[in-house]
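Cross-check.
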Amino acid sequence: SYNNLAVTYGALGEHQKRLDYNIKALAIREKVLPPEHPSLATSYNNLAWTYNALGDVAKAVSFMRRALAILEKSLPAAHPDVEMAKKSLAFLEKELRQTKS
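Predicted model, tokenized:
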């Protein structure tokens, strides 16, 4: 439910509220799931895009790296989720380089 609220607030452009609900969703997942569960990667991915929307690209990159690390440990290398996370990380890293220029 917290994740759904985060998506809704994101669609409304209320990214600080989106962040609050993403953090709540992650806290629950961290309590009930093992550290390498793909659902944790989903939460880290969601936080990455939320931080990106808030303009904190460095935090976005950090969270996307965490998401990718989990996916690489828990899924086959050619899995579409791993590929998407790699592409997302590359996009965010490029954006980070551009903001530093």
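The two ends are 39 Å apart (CA to CA). DSSP finds five helices and no strands in the chain. Passed to J.P. for a second look.
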